[in-house]
Structures are given as C-alpha cells and as structure tokens.
Amino acid sequence: MAGYTIIGAGLSGLSLAMELLKFGINAEVIEYRDYAGGIHALIPEVRSIINDALGEVNVQLATTAIRGGDAVYMVWRGGYRRLNDNVIVATGFRVMTMPELGIYGERPAGIYPHHAVLDMLHYDLLPGRNVIIYGDNPYSLSLARELMRRGAAAIVVSPTELNNGAGEDVRVIIGRVRYVRGLGRVERVLVNNEWVNADTLVISMFKSFNPFPEFRAVGQSIIETYDPRIIIESGKIMACELASRPGEFMVIDSDLPVYPGNRISRDVRRVIIPCRGCKVMINDREYVIQGDAAVIELPDIDRVSIRRVVS
To answer: How far apart are CA 307 and CA 268, in angstroms?
Structure first.
C-alpha cells in the first residue's frame, strides 16, 4: 500500500504514523524544527508517547512543506521534492495575533508567540525574567512551570478558569490583557484595569491551523481540543480510514462539525465531535460531550443524523 507524508512531528503526526505502521503502511514525518514534540514538548503526560514514537517512526527534522504555484513541495537543506496527494497535515495550532485578541499599545521587544519560547527553552535560553503568559489552556500552565523551574517569574493571565492542578503552583489571574507599554522592551502590561510589571509577554492563545486545506488533517490542525487523548484518537481514526475497504461508507447529516468528515468508512464508525459541554442527538439517542470534544461510536447503518440539543 502507498505510503504517506505527514507534515508535523507533534503528538498528532507521530501518533498517526504509529497507527499507520500497525496497518503495514509506511509513513514519513517531516518537521521544520530540529526537534520533535511540538506544543506538547513540555507536557510530561505525553512526553513518553512522543519518545516511543521517535524510536519507530521515520522523522525528518529541519524539513518543511511549502506551496509553489499549484503544487506543494517538501523542502530540506540541499533538496526538494514535489508531494503527491498522499499527504496528511498535522501542523497543530497557530498562535493568535495581538489584533485578534484586542491587545493594543506599543510593540516593544519582549513579546513572543508560545512556539518561539518553546524554541528558546530547547536551546537553554530564557525569553525574560518577569514573564506574563496570556493563555486559557494547559500549555500556558506547563510553560509557566518550566520558566519557573529555570529561575524566571511567571504569571498566567486567562480569560477563563483554569484547572491549575493539585499543587496550584502557578499564579493565575482571571482576565484579559488589554495594553502593552514599553519603549525598548516590555515594561508593564494592562490586565483588566490594573498594570502589572513585566519584561516579557508570551501569547499562548491558539486556533487550529491547516496551511494546506486540500489535504486531510489530524489533531489540532483541524480539531480545537487540548485533550491529548482526543488528539491521539484522531490519528487512530484517520489511520483506519486510510486502511479501510473502498466503497464501504456511511453518510452523516450533522449541524455540528464532525471529524473526519460527513462521509466515513463503515470499518471505522467513530467520529470526534468538538463542542464543549454540548448535548447532541445521534439519531434517537442523546449524548453529553464532556470537555472540549468527544469520541462517539456510531451505529452501523447507512445514514446517521447528528443534531445539537438546544436547552
């Protein structure tokens, strides 16, 4: 069976490659950084999964994909190759921009996207000594803990409540970053209506990002979830789809986004519905989605109806 090129060596890309290997399908994983793990690089609970995958999967670091005209090319130092349709996108989240978040003020040095700080830490560099992290997710907490472990002060600002874990070792301010002051370097940040002194602002608010929408995608490049179990499950579902029998499919009529789509293999019959805290009716059965997404097994019939229950 033909192999696949997976763009992104984070949790979703590596998990998908591992699942494809179980079906006897070869996969190469390309990653533009010189290390794997992506946004999960600092999450202890999934670090072992990433390390296990690196022992089995063909990963090519410092290799990226770019668009040239109507084609997509795999590019590495010293060479390039045109990619065919056997491509899966696993690029994960992108960091939201300051205009998207409504953050105004100067644009001094010391404002970083989350992924840039991960790169700094990989090379044993600190972004600053007094850091504010603006994020509403577990990645902002893990980044704060790592910065504190390395001797920096770190505060997380989140628009929503965060599960800080049993230790509650990270200070979390519930609110929004409104304004940044600083001439040469960040000096203070307006959080709600109060100025907080800081030399660094890290943006850790995310949106799903698929730069190549013509290709199939897995994980956070297509599903807005912070649950590593959902990310891994998306790889399992996609691998089953790619290995399934041709022509045996079912049609889903849904008023909610459904992963991997509205036409799926009857060999799989599992979908992911990203809808935080929703109630949904699947045919005549009601489900409550706990967390930000849920994996649901569908009945083995030709057509399935999925509707959100409005209270």
So the answer is: 21
Distance of alpha carbon 270 from alpha carbon 294, whole angstroms: 10
The count of structural domains within the chain is 3
Tokens of 68: 């040239």
Say whether both 183 and 271 belong to one domain: no
Residues 165 and 217 in one domain: no
Tokens linked to 65: 């994909």
CA distance 63 to 285: 46
In single-letter form, the type of residue at position 250 comes to M
Asked whether the beta carbons of 271 and 260 are under 8 A apart, the reply is yes
Domain membership of residue 62 as a residue range: 4-92+209-242
Task: Read off the tokens for 13.
Answer: 């890309």
Give the torsion through C-alpha atoms of 55, 10, 220, 284, to 10 deg.
Answer: 10
In the predicted model, what is the mean pLDDT of residues 69-98?
95
**234, 271: one domain:** no
Confidence (pTM): 0.91
Which is more confident, 248 or 53? 53
**Residue with tokens 């970083």, as numbered in its chain:** 112
Reading the block at residue 6, the tokens are 């997976």
Q: Are 179 and 103 in contact (CB under 8 A)?
A: yes
DSSP element (H, E) containing 145: helix 138-149
Cα 3 to chain centroid distance, Å, stands at: 24
**Placement of tokens 């893990």 in the chain:** 142
